[in-house]
C-alpha cells in the first residue's frame, strides 16, 4: 500500500486526537508530557474537522478522542460529529468526569461509536486517592452505567500498578457489573508522569506473575461474557512491546496544539523535528516530517535489532523507552532480553518507594 | 477474516444476525477495501465476507440470508450454509455480531 505515490510507505489506521491536556484528575501515571499545553494553544473545531478529513483520506479508520479529559472541551459534541462526517470510527477515551448524561446522549446522536472509561481501582477510597479527586469513583461508575443505558459499547480501562494489582479480579468483576463488553488490563507504562512516579507505582515481580495467572483464569471464567485485553508489563517481559505497531507505520497522534507525533511520548526524545497541522497537511507530515522518518522501517536499527528475526514484529521496541533509560533513542529497547542493558531494567523493576505520588497538574 | 474453527456450532434458522452497536462495516478507498470496525479493533473483510456481513442487518433471518447468498452466487445451499456459519460464528465469538433471534431492539 502507498500514500501519495510513495511505494512502500505504510498507511495509518488510527489517529489519537488529544483534544486538550486539561483534566480534573491528577493520576500519577498520566501518559501526557510533564509540560502540558495550555488551553489558549488548543486547535479549534474547524482545524480538527480538517484533520479528520485528511486522516480519512490518508487511510485512518478510527480516531480516539482523548486528552487530558476530552469532555473539558465545550465543543466535544461538534468535534465528534466532525469525525463521524469524515467517516471515522469514533472512540471517546474519558475519565468520566465532566460528562453529563445529557451530553453523552448528544454525543451518541452525533454518531459516537464507542466509549472507554478509566477505572483507578475497585475500592472507592483507593480509586479516589489514586485519581487525586474525591468522588471520582462514584461519578465514573454512574457515567459507565449511562453509557450502557444508551446502548453504546463500553470498554473499562483498568490501570494496574502496585496499589491495586492484587485486586485485578475485583476490577474485572466491576467492569462486568457496569456492563462493559471489553476490559483493558492496562499495566502502567513509565512515560511522562508515570516515569516521574515509577518507584511509587512499580509492582513486585510476584505480584505481576500472580496478575498474569489471574488474567488467564478470568479469561476462562468469563469467556464470551467480556473480552479481556492484557499484556505483560514490559519491565517484566522478555521481548519489548511493538510500540505503536512500529514508528510511523500504523498510527499518529495530534497534540492539543496541533503537533503531529508518531506516538504520544515522542516529544520526550530531544532533537526530533515535529510538524504541525496548523502549517501542513496530515499527508505531508506523515510522509515527509523528519520525526516520522527518524525511526520508520528498519534502516535505523543497529545490533542486536538489525539482524534479529523479530525486527519487523516488535520494531526494536519503544524509542522513547530507549531514550528514557539509555539516553539513546536508536538503541534496542533495553526491555529486550537481547539488549546488553537488560540488567538495568531488571534493577529498576526492583526499586520501590512508598513516598506520596507526584500528582499530575497543569 | 480472523481464524476459523473447523466444525462451527449450527446457527438457528430464525436467528437475525446483526452488527451490535459499535461495530460497523465500512468501505475505505485508502485502505483498498472493506473493513469491519469495532472497539479498538479493525478487521479487513474480503469481498465475500463483506457481502455476507452486509446482509446482517437484523432484518433477514439467517435462513433467508443463506438462501439469498446461494442464489446470488449460484452455489449449493449446503456449502453456503457451512461457510456462512463458520464466518458468523467466528464474528459472534469476537462479539462482532449478534446472533439472537427476534426483532431488532
Describe the protein in words.
The complex is a heterodimer of chains A (362) and B (105). Chain A is α/β, with parallel strands linked by helices and 362 residues long. Chain A is built from 13 helices and 9 strands. Chain A has a 9-stranded mixed sheet. In chain A, β2, α2 and β3 form a beta-alpha-beta unit. The N and C termini of chain A lie far apart (41 Å). By secondary structure, chain B is α+β, with helices and mostly antiparallel strands. Helices cover 34% and strands 15% of the residues of chain B. Chain B has a 3-stranded antiparallel sheet. Chain B is globular. Chain B starts with 23 loop residues before the first strand and ends in a 12-residue tail after the last helix. The interface between A and B is medium-sized, with 27 and 18 residues.
Give me some keywords for this one.
heterodimer, A: 362 residues, alpha/beta, nine-stranded mixed β-sheet, disordered N terminus, B: 105 residues, alpha+beta, three-stranded antiparallel β-sheet, 3 helices, 34% helix, globular
Amino acid at each position: 500500500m502507498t500514500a501519495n505515490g510513495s511505494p512502500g510507505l505504510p498507511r495509518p489506521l488510527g489517529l489519537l486526537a488529544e483534544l486538550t491536556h486539561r483534566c480534573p484528575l491528577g493520576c500519577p501515571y498520566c501518559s501526557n508530557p510533564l509540560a502540558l499545553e495550555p488551553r489558549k494553544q488548543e486547535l479549534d473545531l474547524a482545524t480538527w474537522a480538517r484533520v479528520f478529513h485528511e486522516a480519512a483520506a490518508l487511510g485512518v479508520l478510527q480516531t480516539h478522542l482523548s486528552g487530558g479529559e476530552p469532555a473539558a472541551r465545550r465543543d466535544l459534541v461538534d468535534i465528534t460529529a466532525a469525525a463521524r462526517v469524515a467517516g471515522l470510527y469514533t472512540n471517546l477515551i474519558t475519565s468520566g468526569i465532566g460528562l453529563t448524561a445529557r451530553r453523552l446522549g448528544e454525543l451518541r446522536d452525533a454518531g459516537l461509536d464507542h466509549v472507554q472509561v478509566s477505572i483507578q481501582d475497585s475500592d472507592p477510597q483507593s480509586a479516589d486517592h489514586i485519581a487525586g479527586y474525591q468522588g471520582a469513583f462514584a461519578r465514573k461508575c454512574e457515567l459507565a452505567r449511562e453509557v450502557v443505558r444508551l446502548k453504546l459499547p463500553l470498554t473499562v480501562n483498568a490501570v494496574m500498578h502496585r496499589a491495586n494489582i492484587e485486586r485485578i479480579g475485583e476490577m474485572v468483576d466491576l467492569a462486568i457489573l457496569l456492563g462493559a463488553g471489553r476490559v483493558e488490563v492496562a499495566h502502567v507504562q513509565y512515560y511522562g508522569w508515570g516515569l516521574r512516579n515509577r518507584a511509587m507505582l512499580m509492582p513486585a515481580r510476584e505480584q505481576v506473575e500472580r496478575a498474569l495467572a489471574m488474567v488467564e483464569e478470568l479469561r476462562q471464567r468469563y469467556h464470551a461474557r467480556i473480552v479481556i485485553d492484557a499484556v505483560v508489563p514490559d519491565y517484566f517481559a522478555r521481548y519489548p512491546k511493538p510500540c505503536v505497531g512500529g514508528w510511523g507505520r500504523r498510527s499518529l497522534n495530534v497534540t492539543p496544539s496541533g503537533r503531529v507525533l508518531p506516538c504520544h511520548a515522542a516529544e520526550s526524545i530531544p532533537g526530533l523535528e515535529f510538524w504541525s497541522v496548523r502549517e501542513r497537511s496530515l499527508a505531508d507530515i506523515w510522509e515527509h516530517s523528519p520525526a516520522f522518518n527518524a525511526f520508520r522501517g528498519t534502516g535505523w536499527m543497529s545490533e542486536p535489532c538489525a539482524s534479529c528475526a523479530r525486527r519487523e514484529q516488535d520494531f526494536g521496541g519503544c524509542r522513547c523507552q530507549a531514550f528514557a533509560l539509555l539516553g539513546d533513542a536508536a538503541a534496542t529497547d533495553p526491555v529486550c532480553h537481547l539488549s546488553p542493558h537488560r540488567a538495568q531494567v531488571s534493577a529498576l523493576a526492583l526499586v520501590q518507594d512508598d513516598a506520596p505520588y507526584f500528582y499530575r497538574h497543569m | 477474516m480472523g481464524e476459523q474453527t473447523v466444525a462451527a456450532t449450527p446457527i438457528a434458522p430464525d436467528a437475525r444476525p446483526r452488527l451490535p452497536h459499535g461495530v460497523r462495516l465500512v468501505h475505505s478507498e485508502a485502505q483498498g477495501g472493506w473493513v469491519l470496525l469495532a472497539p479498538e479493533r479493525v478487521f479487513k473483510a474480503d469481498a465475500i465476507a463483506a457481502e455476507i456481513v452486509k446482509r446482517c442487518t437484523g432484518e433477514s433471518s439467517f435462513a433467508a440470508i443463506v438462501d439469498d447468498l446461494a442464489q446470488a452466487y449460484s452455489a449449493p445451499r449446503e456449502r453456503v450454509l457451512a461457510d456462512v456459519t463458520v464466518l458468523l460464528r467466528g464474528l459472534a465469538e469476537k462479539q462482532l455480531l449478534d446472533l439472537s433471534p427476534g426483532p431488532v431492539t
